[in-house]
Amino acid sequence: MKPLLELEQCFQSSESLSPDTIIEQLEKVNKLDTQDKDYTDQQIIDLIVLGTTKIPIQHKASPAFCHFIFKQCTKQIRVSSFRASSFEKCLLYLLNGLENDAVLADLLVDILRALSALIYENSTNTSKFYTRLTPCLLKFADRSMKPLEIRRMAINCLGNLCAGAGSKLQLYYKDIYQVLLSNLCVVGKGSMASVNSLDLSDSAVRKVASSTLRALQFLLSQDRTLVSNPLYDSVDIAMNRCSRTTQSYQQQPSWRSLNSKYLSTGIISSDSEMSDSDGMTFNPRRCRDDAKIRNNALLCLLAIAKTQPKTLYPHWQKFIPDTFSTFLKNHVVASSLPTTASLRSTTTQHPISPILRSDHQPYSLLTLLLYDPMVTVRVATCHTLIAMLEGSKQYLTMASERETTSSFTSLSEKLGSLVHDLHLGLVYALAKETDPDVMALILKVMSTLMVNTSYDRLSSGYLTQFYRVILSHCWNSDGDPGQAVVVLQTLAAMMTATGATLEIQTILTGGGDDSVQPLLLPLLLSLIDAVGGGLPEIQVETWHILSLCAKHHFKSVMFHAWDRIEAPFELAFSQPRLRSVSLGFIEAFASSMTQYCSVDVTSEDLETCIKWWMMILEKYIQQASMDSLSDVRVLTCDCLSSMAKPVFEQLPARYQRLAMALLLPLPEDEESQVRAAACRALGAFVLFPSLREDTCFVSDMATAVLDRMEDPVTLVRLRASWAQGNLCDALVIASDIEGFCLREWISISTWSKILGTSTVASLDNDKLRSNAVRAMGSLLRITPPDYFKDRHVMFLIRDAMAGLVKNIESGSLKTRWNACHAASNTMNNPAFPLGFIQQRQFQQSDYDDEGELYPQRQHEYPWTATLFRALIHALTQCKNYKVRINAALALATPHQSAQYGHHLATVYQTVLSTWHDCQDPNATTEFQEYKYQEQMKDQIKNALLHLRPWLPELDQMTIDTLFLDT
């Protein structure tokens, strides 16, 4: 019979069985190392609930039952599988035991252990018990609690209680924080001091310290405000725990360093001043405990780095001191590291032994990475460094190095020194590391550092050092594919480094004073060569690096390397598993070619680009557009949308028609990603001069895009709205052609559909709105006067104006300034129905003695008032200057005073008031708006001058006085 089934029968017959029999059966189950797959989670939960009803908390079998709960919750079942009612029974069983004063200390430990497993990341079920559970755990976790094992288990419970709790536990975070810190430091009134008196020689104390740091990590991950608490410095506490256990442990010969070299050569001998009893005994248990403390302290730093990275910036020098170069001089044998001469020059040939050193160099994350014997600690160190460096680009941009010395060291120079030592430390750490998992993580640290560092203000050579140590210690294309992929990912990050173009060019193709071998570009080409074959994952990463090279180093390297890449590309394109990634390279190559052609490209290079596109279209794009893989079809569209305007315009007509023929069917593709990419490509094509003047293409393109404006997928509608906006912009440009007639480009039904879909899109997802109003404004700008005589058209315009006004008043800033600009475009059409309605026949009584209509008798188009109110509100109330500038532009656009309706005076007073506000020296302007200040003044001035001819004489004199000097 299976042990769990026997245990169930034992529980059911517990009243007739002796406690020893129940204990024996529980211990039999607890000794099982494997899961019982015949039992579902719910069956085991039911068994636990049954046990809570059959075994009282003071029963002799209670300790074994608590161990059963702990093991099942950690090894067998998912705690989230508990129903609320079952969880409540189990939790109350354990909680009642904690509150029972008659329960002995050993049983308390077992209860707390079971409770810690039950509540881990289970805030959904636990939250209703916080008011009762938390104070109970805080009492047991207090620094005065003895024995220590009870305190440790209570601390574990507090940590597990915080894990994933979020805001549900917010009321208790501060109390938990204070109790946890009381186990690590002495808290006085207004001050905090680390506890130097913790007796880490006591195993129980070490376990408490480790559990406290673990719980602190969970807590800091949930409440980021605790990190900036001025009373308790979590950063210092975590780092002190790392360094103190390091200092006590580093005296042992097992410390991961080069000490074995010194010991073997007799530097440490019986004649040394250090006796055999001074730290030379090896204690495996102490080693493991100290490593756990260091590991959990590092995880605390990791939590801080993820939740409050900017708070950690001022503390970086505690973890990465800028004296690390000095440390290396004292601790590394230069000849032992097969690195470059430039690296060896930073060390000495006869360094001081770490055991005998007396210079007290600071401990840091780099020393842990270099010397800690525990793989888990080195792994945690790497994760912490990655978390610190991620997103730090803005901070590290300040780093600079200069050759001249000065008594004053700026923050930029301190950061420069820190970045220097961080690069150097990682080079040595990678050269020294033997564990493959840690090596992979060090490479990821390097990648994160390169992505976030700006090298233009630093000394050259850092990337070259990285490249050399990576190839010499990690690269083996015939070895572990996983490690080779990580190496290639690191090299990919190197290609994106900012401010190191010349150094990367040297790494790729050579030519520098200190050229590297092997050069990277030949190495990459060898990996994708037809002869080598190679593993797919390695080839995929290689193509990814080549794509980044094309994106970031096109002109200097890749433009002239196509002849060497073409054969490997043709081979990769012929393989379905590599077709997508190789075509991604073509897309990157084509995009960079477009940027290259947009500047002063030579006629010879332009001819090369044209021939390249002719070959790509005929040999690859044509085939890729019909590929069965949707990713390949998406990249086909992306490649076409990357074609440079000068290239397309000079392609032979046959290739132009081929490109259009391949693209036009793709908006109807069954895959939404393909439809979206095709709409984007059509939006790019319609701006080409030859195509925007091609009425057939414009008509076909409009039809294809209109169908996608009603697509159920938001991404497709977004790309279609962008393409539709470009289409209407292209029509505006085409309208400058003599004899332009809109009906020759699009029919009135297509015009109606464009305006209707734009109106709907202007009320759709916020991402669509900016393009929708752009299309609306451009289309109405070129609409012929006779369109406005149609009753149906006027209904469309009414709805369009409602959507336009809504987007002027609300939405993202981009949407609002596009809406204001669209209003200006609309008013640029003299025939647009705005302001006073002039069509109806007035009676004699509607005129005054001078033959002018009485103002109150003049009727406005219904959208006039709302449009001008929205523009006035945007001009006066919006803080963003781009919105205000475009609102002022719109207010100064109408060609006739009648287009203002009854609002001319209001518009004038608003613009005049805005002018005075712009001249006010006491007015506050947000920093990011300063660059638009002068443009704003110019636009307001232009608006006043535009309004002047239609104003009363007194107002005209006011404007003349304002601009008398100009």
Automatic annotation (TrEMBL):
Location of the DUF4042 domain: 358-501
Domain of life, source organism: Eukaryota
SUPFAM superfamilies documented for this protein: ARM repeat
One Pfam family cited in the UniProt record for this chain: DUF4042
InterPro entries in the record: ARM-like, ARM-type_fold, DUF4042, HEAT6
Coiled coil: none
Family annotation (PANTHER family): HEAT REPEAT-CONTAINING PROTEIN 6, MALARIA ANTIGEN-RELATED
Protein name (record): DUF4042 domain-containing protein
